[in-house]
Hints:
The structure is a single chain. By secondary structure, the chain is of the alpha+beta class. It has one domain (53-207): Glutaredoxin (3-Layer(aba) Sandwich), CATH 3.40.30. Helices cover 40% and strands 19% of the residues. The chain has 6 helices and 9 strands; from the N terminus they run αββαβαβαβαββββα. It has helices at residues 2-30, 65-68, 85-102, 121-129, 142-151, 194-207, and strands spanning 54-57, 62-64, 73-78, 108-113, 136-139, 156-158, 169-171, 175-179, 183-188. Strands 2-1-5-4-3-8-9 form a 7-stranded mixed sheet, sandwiched between helices. Strands 6-7 form a two-stranded antiparallel sheet. Strand 8 (175-179) and strand 9 (183-188) form a beta hairpin. The protein is globular, with a radius of gyration of 22 Å. The protein starts with a helix and ends with a helix.
Amino acid sequence: MADRKILLIGTAAAVGVLAGGALFLTQQRAGDPYAQCTGSAVAGGMDSFGTEFTLTRDDGQRVTSAEVFNQPTLLYFGYTFCPDVCPLDSARNAEVAAIMEDRGETLQTVFVTVDPRRDTPEVLADYTDMFSDDMIGLTGSEQEIAAVNQGWRNYYKANDEDDQEYYLVDHMTNTYLVMPGGHTVDYFPRDALPGDMADSVGCFLDAT
């Protein structure tokens, strides 16, 4: 009988701890307007992504991060000489923006190069225009591009040891959702589908 009482007390205590933990998590998430939309869990949270910057837009103008992120944005890091991944991802991101436009929502797309040596503003303009008239291309100095990539934890490496002209660049392929003011709220892997991305973006826009 004593053992039964101990078991019941232990079970009740465990339930209490679980209930308390659930309440604590609910209270913690209650202050987050995007809690129901976030699909990504990363160390440090999404607030750890991003940085202020000044880069060169594909029309040759110098722009700040505040000027770029003046509306909801899909942000992607790639390069124009990329043979396969970057064109596919850029086309998908442009499709997501088109879906949102059909739904009456505004979503811009931004392409930041990881290959500033070859990706001049003119090269970026020709490249982004293949996917959307509204896609923004950004480049800068080697140091500026390195700082921006570091801000979004984006790994990249040019394989140019043997060829300084036709080299490839290793890089990550996440697409980030950045809200006005430069607040990164989520990211999408390269296998994310346009419709699913649009639904997720819509959730964030509705919660804003």
